[in-house]
Amino acid sequence: MLSKLKVKVLNFIIIIAITSVLVACQGEKEAENVSQTQEKQVAENKKENITIETEDKEATNDYGKLNEEGKEKYDIVKNHIEKNLPYEISVQKYTSDGQRINYNTEGEIPYDFNGDGKIETLKYKIGLSNNQDNGTPINCELTMGNDTIVHKTTEESYEMEISEIGIIDVDKNDKYVDFYINEGYLSGGVSVIYRYVDEKIKKIGECRGIVATSGDGKVYYWGGNLHENYEVFDENLVLEYYDINKNEYVETNQIIGKKLKAPFEIKVYTKDGALEINGSPMMEDEIEKATKGKLVDLIKKNDEFTVIDLSDGVTKVKTNNGKEGWVGGFHMVWD
Ligand SMILES: [Ca+2]
Q1: What pLDDT, on a 0 to 100 scale, did the predictor assign at position 19?
Q2: CA 284 – ligand 1 centroid, Å
Q3: Could you tell me if 279 and 133 lie in one domain?
Q4: Cβ < 5 A residues, ion ligand 1
Q5: Do 247 and 264 fall into the same domain?
Q6: How far is the CA of 120 from the centre of ligand 1 (A)?
Q7: What's the confidence (pLDDT) of residue 37?
Q8: Is 44 helix (H, G, I), strand (E, B) or coil?
């Protein structure tokens, strides 16, 4: 079972390595846009009513009463929310020799979770099973105000152990800041989203592992994007998201027409060639065999290409050479 996880982690690391260039470039641009939008909003607020002295939470809530550690946690959460990224606390980590150990199994996060101008404290406490040497995180007690709930993993298996506790602001137009528990890992994981409403902790949704939010009700998750990266998320690459208000997955073709920069060499095939390699990971020689005679063009590293269509899980692109073809899933190779 551990080796299965190792493979996943390895897969994940390789994905990061090959996608970070692309996503980092666009992520910076995105961060810039976010901050410009925020500046604009502040400016508009000032124009509208100068008696609204401040929408600034630090000035109106009891931020000043927090100790240094509390302020630090508050600031980190705020910083992530501003970028539409989740703030996550991992409850496990790997030692240098590959052993998985539990840590951060108990803690608290101060924030204004219900928009009343006062800071609440979200307390969490992980419950461990006794089926392994050091226990598996299988439940999490969440406390806010006078309410306590126990989140139990949807399936008490190795795959669905609790991996993170996170904070997100799914919709910046409502007064709430939401929190969630991740079970499992990456695209195989599940995030159960909670909200503090009328002094009660309520479950408001459940989707695949959260990677970012839109700020207007969309939750982006692992497996819903053309490329994914743990550090910086790029909204331009979204293929599907989870709508928190409808509680359902929604497909989008917003990527069509976008010009992207290849972070590594990309092979462009005929559609059936791309379909052959779309799916579970394959070895290099298997890929070669499956795509024999189906190669249309090569996109070199740093070359731009345009996405022109999406169909059956593969992506149609136009290269700099003016050729059109299809790109299948990005397959990782390991032995
Ligand atoms: Ca509050």
Answers
A1: 36
A2: 53
A3: no
A4: 112, 114, 116, 118, 120
A5: no
A6: 5
A7: 43
A8: helix
- Per-residue pLDDT tens over the stretch 277-302: 887 777 889 889 999 999 999 999 89
Residues 265 and 167 in one domain: no
**Structure confidence by residue, pLDDT tens digits, 111-148:** 999 999 999 999 999 998 876 667 888 899 999 999 99
Answer whether 252's CB lies under 8 Å from 239's CB: yes
Residue ranges of the chain whose pLDDT lies below 70: 1-61, 131-133, 155-159, 187, 229-231, 329-335
How far apart CA 222 and CA 212 sit, in angstroms, is 9
Q: Which residue has the tokens 């032995």?
A: 335
Choose the final residue of a domain: 229, 251, 273: 251
Instruction: Kindly give, in sequence order, each residue whose CB lies less than 8 Å from that of residue 324, ignoring residues fewer than 6 positions away.
Output: 296, 308, 316, 317, 318
Query: How far, in Å, is the centroid of ligand 1 from the Cα of 230?
Result: 29
Residues 6+ apart with CB under 8 A from 215: 84, 169, 170, 171, 172
Backbone angles phi, psi at 171, to 5 degrees: -130, 110
Is 213 exposed, middle or buried (CB count within 10 Å of its CB: 0-12, 13-18, 19+)? buried
